[in-house]
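User: Predict the structure for this protein chain, please.
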Amino acid sequence: MAEMIHVCYVVSDKKGTYTKFAGTSMCSIFEHTESHVTVHFLHDHTLSEDNRRYLMQLTRSYGQQLLFHDLEKIYGERLRQLEANLKWMEGKVWAWPSHVIWYRLLMGELLPEVERLIYLDSDTIVNLDIRELWEEETGENGLGAVPDIVIQENHYSRLAEAGKLVEERYFNSGVLLLDRQGLDRMEGLLEKGPAFLEECQIIDYPDQDVLNYFYGEGYRILPERYNTMVKQEMVLRHEMVGECLYHYAGKAYALDSVNNFYRLFLDHFTKTPWCNADFISNLARKLHQVTRTELLPFANLFAGMRRIVVGPEEERERFSKMLMLRDNEEYITKGDFDDKGLRLEAEDILVFFLKPEDFPPLKKRLEANGCREWVHFLNGYLLLYRNPAQDAKILLEA
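Assistant: Here is the predicted structure, written as structure tokens:
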């Protein structure tokens, strides 16, 4: 029988709405492997009974194993002492770091019987067989990780600038592969890590910086496919998903079924117990609230104005209904607009629905003739496409 794969997540969830992301990541593991998997779920008192039940329901539906570890109960005194020792950070960080960020530093002590462990951030989707990562080699210090190209290429690490870390080897700690040697190196790291930061008086990415300081020199660099940043994929205009472990860091989620990266997350989320009638109802209510808020500026903009819509003939009915055009308002094609031109009255405003590449040159031409965007014309597609950051917030809160 194949060796059991051990995977670890760390979650704190005061509002009770974040655990579903860890559950979605777990679902993606179970969907893509035939191996036996044990998930170690490290949490605090904020894990609700509903979320605990959903996690168990999900795991059992795939015939896998789940173990809960309440670190507040197991390491309560050490964690309370840590909080007291971190008072020097006040005023040095934009948001006070939750005690849960240090839980990863306890994995080695918590799981002495585990010889090999994969740690995953909750905002990951495993679109490959997790055994592929499991069977990768670790470095001389027992760790395998993927370099953080965003931090390296943009020189975001002040500890690297100060010579405390080697920038070329700085890794992202959202995906880690540890063997027993690497886990043993965590002995006392809960105290040694923050002490290192206090000595440096530099705080950028507290727990990640600690791991880089204690593991950066001897870890094995893993292929990027094991920690592929979704936002970076979009910057590079990559459209197709592959057999990768995707990291949705920075809340790279949106309610968009056309974008393949957003769709990959949604495909797995809909297979979890969290995607139920309550969630859909909450999602619909929040979408309605946000849509009304977002459309209010447009409603105010159009108040008292006569809209002239310029768009493709085949979309005439759709856009006319969407905008609820009145009898005195017009819908014309781009060809008609180019051929005839228009003499705008003071109360007229042009709303263009054009191909993305067609709007910038048109805008330039209109502005050269004295027209002003948001006063005399606007890009109507702003009414159609949602803000991904807003969608991520809605998904988190629903």
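The radius of gyration is 26 Å.
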